[in-house]
Amino acid sequence: MQAHLGGLALGLALALVGVLTFVTASQERLLQKWMGSTVDHGQFPAARRALRGQGMVLFLSAAATVLVSAGPSIGLAGDAAMALVAALVFIQAFLIWRLYGNRDPFVRQILGETASMAFWVGIAGLFLWAAAERFAGAGRLEALDLVVAGMAVHGATVMGICARRLRG
How do residues 33-47 score in pLDDT, each as one tens digit? Predict the structure, then answer.
């Protein structure tokens, strides 16, 4: 089976954004710019932990995406490969629950903004693709295509929101 190029590209992008997230969390100036000038400096440690946790989530997402996208083409298959993917997804889900299950209003605001925008952009994209399948003869999508598209929309939304915060 051939590697899924969209999944590989997404995995590399997730890894790059993970590095940028860690850099932002490590640099006081970038962290302050990201959080905004009206934020109390006492919230910096929590924001730094949240960003580092998000960086770890991004790395786990990158690893799982690359594994699913390229694994079959390099001979990974069967129960062991599935168990590895399941473990990565479980750890990622646990970290996300820990990150966003807290009561920090700043993190909840970012999460709500991101989820809302990504959902509506994703739904609009899927609807347009469905229309293209019906009317223009566009090809059918695989499940991995949908996952890659959904993660790409979410990632672009998060990066847009963060870039807006960094610009001030």
Answer: 666 655 566 666 777
108-137 burial, b for 16+ CB within 10 Å, e for fewer?
eebeeebeebbeeebeeeeeebeeeeeeee
Full-model pTM:
0.72
Secondary structure of the chain in HEC code, one letter for each residue:
CCCCHHHHHHHHHHHHHHHHHHHHHHCHHHHHHHHCCCCCHHHHHHHHHHHHHHHHHHHHHHHHHHHHHHHHHHCCCHHHHHHHHHHHHHHHHHHHHHHHCCCCHHHHHHHHHHHHHHHHHHHHHHHHHHHHHHHCCCCCCCHHHHHHHHHHHHHHHHHHHHHHHHHC
Q: Quote the CA–CA distance of 43 and 30 in Å, as a whole number.
A: 14
The closest alpha carbon to 105, from 167, 50, 52, 160, belongs to: 50
